Amino acid sequence: MPTATASLGAHTLASSSTYQLVEGNVYFPPSSIVDSSLFTPSDTHTHCPWKGEASYKNIAVEGEKEVKDGAWFYPETVTERAEGLKGWFAFYKSKVDVRVE
Fold it and tell me: Are 11 and 64 in contact (CB under 8 A)?
């Protein structure tokens, strides 16, 4: 299986051959996060009718500008269909380089 990678500049944020593609976004399992200290909670929340309420994280790596709301995840899901996404991280492709190779 190909490997999905999320990076900011020269810093790898997440990497895994176990990922999910949902609505054009790559979702990474929590275990794929390379350094959780790079992520800080954001006050931003959005709602999806079938996934639930998303929580966001800001990303700060040395030598790069902080990326506000660069990643999101669903701490809880509201449908059986979304259950497999609970706790998994996705990144805004316009803010973070996300590749599947």
Answer: yes
The Cα 9–Cα 65 span in angstroms is 10
pLDDT of residue 63: 82
pTM greater than the 0.85 cutoff: yes
Tokens describing residue 7: 């990076």
pLDDT along the chain (101 residues), means of 10: 94 97 97 97 98 98 92 98 98 97 97
Structure tokens at 56: 């966001």
- The answer to whether residues 90 and 39 touch, using CB atoms and an 8 Å cutoff, is no
Task: Measure the CA–CA gap between 19 and 21, rounded to whole angstroms.
Answer: 7
Here the tokens at position 37 are: 């200290």
45/2 Cα distance (integer angstroms): 31
